[in-house]
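Summary of Year 1 activities. Much of the first year was spent building the evaluation harness for sequence design. The harness presents a backbone, in tokenized form, and records the residue chosen at every position. We chose the following record to illustrate the format because it has been used consistently in internal testing since the harness was completed.
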């Protein structure tokens, strides 16, 4: 073996790198163990301990802090740690409208609406759709008339063509997405998430964000969707507004009709000797109700809104000076807003005044402060905007209270100086300036002195989290276009812990199954393969840690599956060694020849799976990418460990004159003298496959289509754990009573009878900010009628536009993989019949898996749902088929090489293909059984979250083996009939 020294050097170097990468996990484990021991179950103490260790060196020798080490350990995905991921969509429609200064032109706005509708239906390029739609509505229209504004004059001339406008909008759209990514990244970093995962979804206006460990959904949504439109306003003082509020109160009192309460009517009836006469306490009830009604009638505004006052030295109540003009309880703020919005009230409020509530309730209460903002410009813009802020730092003031120090740009500092000078001009009546973020007053400090240098401190009733979020948002600035969450996925920590337990269990059991199989079947050679396998797992984990990959439950499945696939190389080698031994060659020569002849098949089979892994990574997101990452890493390390390291071990054993056995008395004659006529029975196989596909079509029609998950149709899904077994139909009925029977609602068990997966399309098209809360409240309302205790363990939301993109992405992934496989085989084997035969087999496999899913849906005790994970399974199944087909094609090519012929036809070709299939049958069956056993272990012990995914792989493993033996290679005979006829002539 050549290059032994280099291989040893690379193995040692890779081992050191992996050991170093994995050492961070050991260090963080020790620190977190100490934290648990210190806290003794108190989570607050545990968090405080870890916070205190953030800047403390914990890595001996390197001096790395806990925070640095924590950032270098293997990242756990949502399904293993709990957390939240969201897909943000940057509104290019709003951006387009904003760049044109919000025109009222009917055709312009209709074109925007039409383009958005096409995007919702699966369109890709919003800008191209908008331009196309506008040109349809206004064939001679010039878009430059809308977009060649004063702000855009340098980039777009007044006489620009529509094509120029399209290019301009495309550039602005790309820039907006890039800036939004930067802003969102800044916000997430400031949120304190360890190892967040953010990706721009190329070719779309979406950004995927994954935040392991985050559970505060409302805070995340507010942080990500907030426009962060910082404004600085002058404000009215209390005494300037009280008269207007009194006028509003009087006007409302005059418009309220006199209505008599039921209690009052009942009391009147009783006093007249009616049926209710004789009831006690009637007069008291009447008096109490009357007083309350009188207060509301006479003071409709001041019954829910209080004017701030204080007791003066003379004992009289006086107006409290300052910018707070009123107070109201939290439950009444919406009522106050509604009163201000009444048509008869709007004319009373001056055009230079608008009301805004404070950010938080007053200390220890649920009372919110109301401010009156002073609008001084004709266009209604603030005196100063967020663009004036250059930086913001969270810190503490002189009283050690959290605050934010804000730094202005040079232009901003000049305007800020003017504003603060005006506010502090009257020493007897210093004014306040309201610092407003998204129409909420964060602080309204009274300006004591002019601020000339542009450095200010924002303080108030803030917590440390408030100031972190505020400073982070101020630094990030304003989003260039509105961003909204179009899909989200939340996993509770308990569900994550269950996934960890089940994932580790499946990993250990599957690993033991593989080790036992190899040792029992291949004897001493099997132990060499096991050693290479252990080294391979170490390399996989080390490489994942080194690259900062996110480990998910499908990722663990990918590792376990890689373990099963990695033995394929050893099986190929060992079976070829056994063939050489059967020919009477020595062990040393047989090993050398076995490695030599197996190498072509090993390279081809691994390359095909690797290509599929890349396609999965490109087209998938989240868990699919986790699976693809570990699959690709595992294939690369498997080739190194199974081929090179195992060869080194064999060389070492041979040098020591050690005996090496590749079988035992039971396995020695396995798969010998097999001569099955696969080609002769191919039409029977065609018939079996056709019958299954036709049956699948029948069930497809009967079931009304495939059981599509929310990935493919949109909706919300919740995983709910009950304290007792539940009847799914009963729960569905109670939820439909709340959601409405016209909404699609599904309730299925998620592994056990007391854990249900609830899917609904209720309010899925609702774009309101509180839509998620509305649905969750309806869910709780319906579940509360079951009479059982329950907890919401996690959930997901996918809007229809995202779902349509996933569908088209899935189609693209499958078609693209077929094209790539065809090209690869065409290049490798230079026969289009081989490539086409393999692609036909791939489509055959997809149709069979879909048919089995359709036939068995509702029969099995778990949901056979078609989602993103299913597409990953389909592509992996295609990889199986390709791997096994390529091995057979390699044997055909090798045999042709031995005979010196380019190709053969007729009966000679039939015999050649049968020979190739039979001679590789041992490898095909052994590899299939190995992978099948691994998948079976994951299916049983791997947890409910991937059971449907693994079931698809199990079926696919069987179908892939059947397809490679009975379809993909035999069909080459039928595809080559014309060539055969020409050869005969």
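For this record, the design step produced the sequence shown next.
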């Amino acid at each position: 073996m050549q290059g032994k020294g280099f291989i040893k050097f690379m193995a040692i170097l890779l081992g050191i790198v992996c050991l170093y990468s994995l050492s961070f996990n050991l260090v963080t484990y020790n620190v977190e163990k100490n934290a648990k021991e210190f806290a003794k179950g108190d989570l607050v103490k545990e968090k405080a301990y870890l916070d205190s260790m953030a800047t403390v060196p914990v890595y001996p020798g390197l001096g790395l802090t806990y925070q640095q080490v924590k950032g270098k350990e293997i990242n756990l995905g949502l399904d293993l740690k709990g957390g939240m991921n969201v897909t943000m969509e940057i509104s290019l429609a709003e951006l387009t409208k904003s760049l044109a200064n919000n025109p009222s032109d009917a055709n312009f706005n209709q074109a925007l609406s039409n383009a958005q509708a096409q995007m919702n239906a699966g369109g890709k390029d919003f800008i191209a759709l908008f331009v196309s739609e506008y040109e349809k509505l206004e064939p001679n229209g010039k878009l430059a008339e809308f977009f060649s504004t004063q702000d855009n004059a340098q980039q777009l001339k007044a006489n620009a063509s529509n094509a120029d406008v399209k290019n301009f909008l495309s550039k602005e759209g790309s820039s907006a997405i890039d800036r939004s990514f930067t802003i969102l990244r800044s916000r997430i970093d400031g949120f304190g998430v360890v190892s967040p995962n953010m990706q721009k979804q190329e070719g779309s206006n979406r950004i995927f964000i994954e935040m392991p460990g985050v559970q505060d959904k409302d805070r995340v949504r507010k942080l990500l969707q907030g426009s962060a439109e910082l404004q600085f306003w002058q404000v009215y003082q209390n005494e300037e507004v009280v008269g207007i509020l009194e006028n509003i109160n009087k006007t409302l009192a005059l418009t309220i009709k006199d209505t008599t309460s039921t209690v009052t009517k009942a009391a009147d009836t009783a006093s007249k000797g009616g049926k209710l006469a004789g009831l006690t306490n009637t007069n008291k009830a009447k008096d109490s109700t009357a007083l309350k009604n009188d207060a509301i009638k006479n003071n409709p505004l001041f019954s829910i809104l209080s004017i701030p006052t204080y007791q003066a030295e003379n004992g009289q109540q006086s107006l409290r000076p300052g910018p707070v003009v009123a107070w109201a309880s939290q439950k009444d703020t919406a009522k106050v807003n509604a009163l201000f919005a009444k048509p008869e009230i709007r004319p009373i409020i001056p055009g230079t005044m608008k009301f805004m509530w404070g950010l938080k309730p007053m200390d220890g209460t649920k009372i919110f402060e109301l401010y009156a903002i002073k609008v001084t410009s004709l266009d209604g813009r603030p005196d100063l905007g967020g663009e004036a802020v250059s930086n913001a730092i969270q810190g503490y003031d002189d009283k050690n209270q959290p605050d934010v120090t804000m730094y202005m740009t040079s232009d901003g500092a000049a305007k800020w100086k003017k504003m603060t000078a005006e506010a502090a001009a009257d020493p007897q009546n210093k004014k306040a300036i309201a610092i407003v973020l998204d129409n909420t007053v964060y602080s309204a400090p009274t300006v004591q002195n002019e601020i000339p240098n542009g450095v200010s401190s924002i303080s108030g009733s803030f917590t440390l989290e408030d100031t972190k979020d505020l400073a982070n948002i101020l630094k990030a600035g304003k989003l260039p276009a509105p961003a909204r969450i179009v899909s989200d996925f939340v996993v509770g920590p308990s569900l994550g812990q269950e996934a960890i337990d089940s994932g580790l269990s499946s990993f250990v059991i599957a690993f033991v199954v593989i080790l036992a199989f190899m040792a029992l079947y291949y004897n001493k050679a099997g132990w060499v393969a096991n050693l290479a396998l252990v080294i391979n797992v170490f390399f996989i984990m080390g490489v994942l840690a080194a690259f900062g990959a996110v480990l998910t439950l499908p990722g663990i499945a990918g590792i376990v599956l890689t373990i099963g696939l990695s033995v394929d190389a050893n099986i190929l080698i060992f079976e070829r060694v056994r063939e050489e031994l059967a020919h009477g060659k020595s062990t040393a020569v047989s090993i050398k020849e076995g490695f030599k002849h197996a190498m072509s098949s090993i390279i081809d089979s691994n390359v095909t799976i690797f290509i599929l892994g890349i396609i999965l990574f490109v087209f998938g997101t989240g868990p699919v990418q986790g699976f693809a990452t570990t699959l690709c890493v595992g294939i690369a390390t498997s080739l190194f460990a199974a081929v090179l390291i195992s060869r080194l071990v064999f060389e070492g054993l041979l040098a020591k004159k050690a005996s090496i056995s590749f079988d035992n008395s039971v396995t020695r004659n396995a798969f010998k003298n097999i001569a099955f006529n696969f080609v002769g029975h191919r039409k029977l196989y065609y018939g079996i496959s056709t019958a299954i596909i036709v049956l699948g079509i029948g069930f497809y029609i009967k079931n009304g289509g495939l059981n599509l998950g929310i990935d493919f149709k949109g909706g919300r899904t919740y995983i709910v754990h009950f304290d007792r077994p539940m009847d799914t139909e009963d729960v569905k009925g109670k939820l439909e009573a709340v959601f409405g029977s016209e909404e699609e609602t599904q309730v299925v068990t998620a592994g056990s009878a007391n854990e249900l997966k609830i899917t609904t399309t209720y309010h899925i098209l609702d774009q309101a900010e509180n839509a998620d809360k509305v649905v969750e409240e309806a869910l709780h309302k319906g579940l509360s009628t079951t009479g059982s205790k329950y907890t919401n363990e996690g959930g997901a939301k996918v809007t229809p536009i995202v779902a349509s993109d996933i569908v088209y992405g899935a189609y693209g992934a499958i078609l693209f993989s077929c094209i790539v496989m065809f090209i690869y085989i065409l290049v490798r084997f230079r026969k289009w019949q081989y490539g086409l035969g393999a692609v036909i087999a791939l489509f055959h496999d997809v149709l069979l898996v879909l048919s089995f899913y359709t036939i068995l849906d509702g029969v099995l005790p778990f949901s056979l749902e078609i989602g993103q994970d299913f597409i990953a399974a389909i592509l992996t199944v295609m990889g199986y088929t390709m791997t096994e087909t390529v091995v057979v094609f390699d044997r055909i090519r090798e045999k042709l090489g031995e005979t010196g012929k380019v190709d053969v036809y007729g009966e000679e070709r039939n015999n050649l293909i049968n020979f190739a299939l039979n001679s590789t049958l041992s490898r095909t069956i052994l590899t299939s059984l190995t992978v099948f056993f691994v998948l079976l272990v994951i299916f049983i012990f791997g947890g409910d979250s991937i059971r449907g995914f693994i079931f698809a792989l199990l079926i696919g493993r069987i179908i892939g083996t059947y397809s490679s033996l009975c379809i993909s290679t035999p069909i080459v005979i039928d595809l080559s009939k014309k060539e055969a006829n020409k050869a005969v002539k």
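Residues 258-286 have pLDDT under 50 and may be disordered. Quantitative recovery figures across the full test set are reported in Table 2.
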